[in-house]
Amino acid sequence: MSNGTFDAGDVTLEQVREHVWELPATGDMRVPARVFASRALLEEISEDKTLEQLRNTTHLPGITNYAICMPDGHQGYGFPVGGVGALDAETGCISPGAVGYDINCGVRMMKTNLTYDEVAGTEAELVDSLFANVPSGLGGGGIVESDVETVNEILARGVDWALEHGYAVEEDLLHCEDEGTREEADPDKVTQKAKDRGKNQIGSLGSGNHFLEVQRVTNVFDAHVGEAFGLEEDQIVILIHCGSRGLGHQTCTDYLRKIERQHQGLLNQLPDKELAAAPAGSQLETDYYGAMNAAINFAWVNRQLIMHRTRQVFERVFDRSWQNMEMELLYDVAHNIAKKETHDVDGDQRELYVHRKGATRAFPAGHPDVPTAYRDVGQPVIIPGSMGAGSYVLRGGENSMDLTFGSTAHGAGRLMSRTQAKNEYWGGDVRDELEDQRDIYVKAQSGATVAEEAPGVYKDVDEVVRVSDELGIGDKVARTFPVCNIKG
Which family is this sequence assigned to (predicted)? Predict the structure, then answer.
């Protein structure tokens, strides 16, 4: 039953039901577009070019059902951040811009058996030690600085390489999406320039919104799932958010340029050249998919090495082994990715390139791609908020396959640009206020980084998660709150 409309310039959305808004297909749109948001979030989403970009994505060949925007949606490069587009793998295309420059930017959460009381009083030492030992910021510097031969192994094998070299244990792989390895990876399709950019950045946070955050669990909303995930109130957990660094960025750039040169005909049919796509069946489709999967493997190793180093820091600060502190991986999930997945479309099983750009896979209980440890309760979904607002752990909801190709939001979603943030906030003031008023210790390479990531720069993560939960695409399990945070 329709409950009215929402007007945003030349875009008028019709409300299908609560939290579901549709832009009907008109003109050259191949499918309708849908926004999953409350009216309050929709007001924020409509303030930039998100809705226009969402409408543009409906022109991509092979797009199925509808183009989707999550409740944390905001303007991106061509394809909105918070966007999901499922494109037919036989008749459609694959779009680097719909994956994003930071291929397999994602999050991993590590659990501990420490309580908040045990960590209280060590925050300053902990944040200084993490900052000193986990490389961050622009440019080079990683936990492993290597030659191109090693980079090729990482691109091909993912976390399996880290396991062989002592940076991982078997359980880490079992609690990672795809067990930390994309078998379709083809290192030969990643350019030498991209490999050169990546070889000195293996095990580094980078800059921007990437972070390592020590958190405490403040709420467990679902005791049964919380137990299955190993989460309980007052527990200390660690969240790592980063991606494929310069290697992923260069890979996206390389393939956008190649596609622009070789598939001008398709490009001319699209309303925005930033949506440049390689048609299914083309050589560039195969090449980009192989290169993207290799960059995905690189990002998983990047987060694995940061987790390894974090374990070492905790061992020194608390003077016991990481095994004794039960510093185990809860889950690692990507949120900038395109994956070949089989979905039900109008009663038929079809293979699709599901592009999730600033969106998280959220498969429900029973799905065969959910790790065995969690198959009975559903895939863990990790939604980071701002460094002043806390984060959430969800589980894949039972409606996700029908509504969103098994996806939900990836974070709070930005409200203002980095430039605007630096004009509105002073990094030192933000840092001092977080420490003085909220007992959150923050350390970054520059005050500008803190200003760009100030809590006021982001949407309300509680509202984003409320919408996901009420739609049944990602169900609330637990909430966390920052203890200390390092940024690039």
Answer: Belongs to the RtcB family.
